[in-house]
């Protein structure tokens, strides 16, 4: 069962998407991911965007941990309905509408976004069959909507190649957890992330599986 791990709604069970079309982030990977994001100090007060949201578990976890607003973007009807139920859950706990669900494909959503719309933390967890060229196109449309110190997290199969980063985005870290690999990127701005934090040994917080 998926759940919110920590924060205002910590321990609360989440709705999951029926069937096999979505691939939810495991609690183990989610714990490691948010430990690292806490080390980067990018969650509190953040404007969060969760693309290919599935059940919305990454977005609502961010909100439970102190994000200011969260946008969940999901095109599938069943998945977006689950997103809405999980959004209603966290909004009820917080007593405000912090999470908004958008039923849309990713590229059209980003094309429609106002030129002034910016996010501080972005998750992209696309279905594994999504072609690399489509992921690169989404990242290219995303880049103009990032705040200067934003963090972008891409979750892919550990057998998938590194995403094709567009101009304006640069990878600064990656971690492998069994069949999952997380890629971390930032706007191409010097010192957007403190290198001492990036280089810090986080082995005690997120253990890498060795296949």
Plain-language structure description:
The protein has 211 residues and is α/β, with parallel strands linked by helices. Helix content is 29%, strand content 24%. It contains 6 helices and 7 strands, in the order H-E-H-E-H-E-H-E-H-E-E-E-H. The chain has a 7-stranded mixed β-sheet. Helix 5 links the parallel strand 4 and strand 5. Helix 2 runs parallel beside helix 3 and helix 4 packs parallel to helix 5. The longest helix has 18 residues. The protein is globular and about 40 Å long.
Shape: globular
> How would a crystallographer describe the biggest sheet?
7 strands, mixed
Point out poorly predicted stretches.
Answer: 201-211
Q: Strands of the biggest beta sheet: in what spatial order?
A: 3-2-1-4-5-7-6
Strand share of the residues? Answer: 15-25%
The tally of strands reads 7
The topology string of helices and strands comes to HEHEHEHEHEEEH
Tell me the span between the first and last alpha carbons. Answer: 25 Å
Fraction of residues in helices? 25-40%
Compute the number of helices.
6
Determine the structural class based on helices, strands and strand pairing.
Answer: alpha/beta
Multimeric organization: single chain
Rg calculated over all Cα atoms:
16 Å
